[in-house]
């Protein structure tokens, strides 16, 4: 570990970083700052003038490609003199960081990039992103334009650039449960209630499981114990945490975490949740989308893919655990890079986040819950034709959202590997959860 | 005019002319080699040297590198994961090289014969060249899945279907199968070219002496292509050592239980998951030295047996 490392005055002790969770499970933070409808339309930003010329490159995560193309067509209709070129950035966190880092070293960063709250401090400190304060100056967005908690997630917390805003939230989202309504009907099950608990979820999954002889042909639910947006809030529901507050030690074998691991892994051993092999052979969402799993934990961003493959589905809240309603949350957004074509990039971002511009298109695409209070109850996304029908679940999940633990950047990969290895030891080698995660904890702590 | 005598003066002129001619020939050869040599030095040698240099630093890509000398190599020697990765790499190398050499030799002989199915075989063995590794990895992942073709075949003959990608041993076997499949086209092409150079008269003479097909293959063909066998062994060894990375990245991600966590993949995760670029360079440097040593050993052994 680099004990003497200083980056623009930022101490090495704590970098926010992605924990290797699935990018599609990064969401808007719950507990929004305002329950009101937000700023009036007179206070919202106007649309670009149409006189700009130039070209920018927009780096997006690959799952966002279809929506991005639609947005580019719409923006270029407003600014015909501007060309926006799409570049795909990997969805997997390690590959995403690799691409951004090497692009920065090569002086080849796109002008605008997809980002998350977990990268704000480290990207600001290493000169990847730029301050977006100009978007809030005269003629720009009002100060309370975005949901406050989402907006604050993109404010730099430490170092020379403390207080600057190095990204803006593109969506407000948190984990919900997607379920196949046809499977429920066949099994004679009622739709999940808003206050269902983990025990109800497990019982439902057991009734949905289908076997042919010894072979499971349909799992009750696709659940991946490796996903931080799952194990972190469950651990918090049991009063625990993933890492000590001072970042000195992981707590993978604490009582609270062991309870979380048992909830997530024991049903995998029994064939109620998807097996390790099936989950690894399929991509995220594939088991549910192909009808091989009847339920899955997912986010609004995954709805377009579900709509194109599963005709009969709806959504429900994440089940409560230990009497607590906590849901995995985060935020995805856009940032302008330090070497960007500033004039065109800021104009694009202004259009993208405007109520009458990009936000309307995103809301209508099924893939986004707008991060703007004035659009939170808008029919643009609330009244879209089903599925899903139960859009209240997204709002409730958003309110129950909890942030993942801050993991030091040099330990995130080790943590993910430790949990993955422990899970394999339990599911493939028959080791006890207690033993496997005690060893995993020691392994992960070597990186701290 | 005085006749020029034979003797030292005329031998010097002849020797000088010969040296001049040889120097001219060497210069021409060097001129033709230079472009490729420059590319090779710039794109292969220089990065290798830089990689060795980087292994002496602690660097997370976002902050300035810090010189730590040979610390990474000391850590590597005691790292149980690295030792496991070395074991996995050697298993895949040895598991892939011998079958690739033998199968490609047999395939080349089939293609070199007047067999009716020659065209079909030619298409089949060349197809891996046209499929990208990622696409191939996705295909093979399906093939090895419980619903895939291999599992159906095994089930249809009454055998228990192995957990190809979920069992550590079978995952290694699956990886080796894909590495062999990838290496067959080039190896077969090399053997096919070499077989064209085996004189037919040798086969005819052996037939007259009563040798059958397998005896001719063993005592005539196989020794006649021994130089190519060495080349293919080296190429396959390098391909298995380094080229298996993309197979592992798509098929198994180093699992299950690190069974397929080969050294190149471990270097990759050390760099881009753990942000330890210096340590990753140390791993790559060690792997490079192992492959160089193995290659040198093969060449020396071949030269000694040729001298005998």
Short overview:
Chain A is of the alpha/beta class. Chain A has helices spanning 65-78, 93-105, 120-125, 148-152, 181-186, 198-208, 228-237, 255-269, 276-281, 286-289, 303-309, 342-352, 358-363, 379-382, 392-399, 409-429, 433-445, and strands at 6-7, 10-11, 54-61, 82-89, 112-116, 168-169, 176-180, 210-212, 215-218, 295-298, 313-316, 327-328, 332-336, 401-402.
Break the fold down into its secondary structure elements and pairings.
The complex is a heterodimer of chains A (448) and B (308).
Chain A: E1 6-7, E2 10-11, E3 54-61, H1 65-78, E4 82-89, H2 93-105, E5 112-116, H3 120-125, H4 148-152, E6 168-169, E7 176-180, H5 181-186, H6 198-208, E8 210-212, E9 215-218, H7 228-237, H8 255-269, H9 276-281, H10 286-289, E10 295-298, H11 303-309, E11 313-316, E12 327-328, E13 332-336, H12 342-352, H13 358-363, H14 379-382, H15 392-399, E14 401-402, H16 409-429, H17 433-445
Helix pairs in contact in A: 7-8, 16-17
Chain B: H1 8-54, E1 57-58, E2 66-67, H2 71-78, H3 80-111, H4 118-130, H5 133-143, H6 149-156, H7 168-196, H8 200-208, H9 213-224, H10 226-251, H11 263-272, H12 277-307
Antiparallel strand pairs in B: 1-2
């Amino acid at each position: 570990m680099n004990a003497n490392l200083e980056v623009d005055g930022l101490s090495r002790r704590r970098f926010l970083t992605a924990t290797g969770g699935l990018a599609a499970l990064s969401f808007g933070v719950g507990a929004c700052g305002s329950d009101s409808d937000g700023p009036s339309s007179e206070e919202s930003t106007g649309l670009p003038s149409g006189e700009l010329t130039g070209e920018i490159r927009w780096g997006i995560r690959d799952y966002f490609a279809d929506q991005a193309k639609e947005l580019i067509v719409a923006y270029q209709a407003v600014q015909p003199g501007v060309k926006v070129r799409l570049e795909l950035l990997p969805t997997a966190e390690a590959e995403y960081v690799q691409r951004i880092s090497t692009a920065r070293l090569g002086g080849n960063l796109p002008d605008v990039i997809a980002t998350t709250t977990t990268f704000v401090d480290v990207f600001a400190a290493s000169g990847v992103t730029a301050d977006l304060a100009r978007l809030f100056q005269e003629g720009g967005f009002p100060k309370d334009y975005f949901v406050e908690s989402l907006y604050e997630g993109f404010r730099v917390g430490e170092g020379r650039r403390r207080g600057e805003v190095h990204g803006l939230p593109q969506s407000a989202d948190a984990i919900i449960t997607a379920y196949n309504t046809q499977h429920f009907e066949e099994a004679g099950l009622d739709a999940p209630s808003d206050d269902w608990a983990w025990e109800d979820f497990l019982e439902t999954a057991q009734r949905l499981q289908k076997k042919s002889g010894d072979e499971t042909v349909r799992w009750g639910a696709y659940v991946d114990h490796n996903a931080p947006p799952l194990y972190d809030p469950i651990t918090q529901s049991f009063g625990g945490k993933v890492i000590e507050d001072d970042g000195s030690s992981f707590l993978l074998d604490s009582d609270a975490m062991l309870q979380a691991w048992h909830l997530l892994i024991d049903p995998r051993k029994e064939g109620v949740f998807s097996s390790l092999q099936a989950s690894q052979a399929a991509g995220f969402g594939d088991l549910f989308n192909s009808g091989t799993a009847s339920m899955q934990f997912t986010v609004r961003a995954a709805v377009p893919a579900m709509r194109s493959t599963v005709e009969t589905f709806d959504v429900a809240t994440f089940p409560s655990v230990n009497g607590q309603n906590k849901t995995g949350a985060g935020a995805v957004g856009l940032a302008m890079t330090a070497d960007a074509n500033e004039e065109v990039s800021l104009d694009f971002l202004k259009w993208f986040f405007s109520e009458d511009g990009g936000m309307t298109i995103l809301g209508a695409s099924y893939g986004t819950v707008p991060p703007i209070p004035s659009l939170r109850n808008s029919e643009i996304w609330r009244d879209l034709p089903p599925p899903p029908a139960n859009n209240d679940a997204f709002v409730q999940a958003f309110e129950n959202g909890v942030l993942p633990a801050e993991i030091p950047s040099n330990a995130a990969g080790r943590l993910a590997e430790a949990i993955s290895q422990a899970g394999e030891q339990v599911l493939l080698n028959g080791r006890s959860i207690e033993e496997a995660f005690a060893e995993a904890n020691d392994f992960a702590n070597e990186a701290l | 005019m005085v006749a020029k005598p034979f003797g030292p003066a005329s031998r010097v002129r002849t020797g000088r002319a010969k040296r001049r001619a040889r120097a001219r020939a060497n210069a021409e050869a060097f001129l033709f080699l230079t472009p490729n040599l420059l590319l090779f030095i710039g794109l292969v040698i220089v990065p290798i040297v830089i990689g060795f240099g980087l292994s002496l630093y602690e660097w997370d890509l976002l902050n300035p590198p810090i010189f730590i000398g040979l610390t990474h190599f000391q850590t590597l020697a005691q790292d149980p994961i690295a030792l496991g990765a070395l074991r996995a790499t050697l298993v895949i190398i040895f598991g892939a090289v011998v079958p690739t050499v033998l199968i490609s030799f047999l395939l080349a002989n089939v293609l070199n014969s007047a067999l009716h199915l020659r065209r079909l075989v030619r298409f089949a063995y060349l197809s891996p060249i046209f499929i990208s590794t990622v696409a191939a990895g996705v295909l093979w992942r399906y093939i090895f899945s419980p619903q895939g073709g291999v599992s159906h075949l095994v089930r249809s003959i009454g055998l228990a279907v192995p957990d190809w990608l979920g069992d550590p041993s079978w995952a290694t076997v699956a990886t080796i199968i894909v590495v062999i499949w990838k290496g067959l086209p080039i190896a077969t092409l090399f053997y096919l070219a070499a077989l064209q150079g085996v004189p037919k008269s040798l086969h005819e003479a052996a037939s007259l002496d009563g040798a059958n097909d397998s005896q001719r293959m063993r005592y005539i063909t196989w020794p006649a292509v021994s130089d190519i066998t060495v080349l293919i062994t080296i190429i396959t060894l390098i391909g298995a050592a380094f080229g298996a990375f993309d197979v592992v990245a798509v098929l198994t991600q180093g699992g299950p239980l690190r069974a397929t966590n080969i050294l190149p993949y471990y270097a990759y995760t050390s760099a881009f998951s753990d942000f330890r670029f210096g340590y990753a360079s140390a791993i790559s440097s060690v792997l490079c030295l192992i492959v160089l040593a193995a290659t040198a050993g093969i060449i020396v052994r071949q030269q000694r047996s040729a001298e005998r």
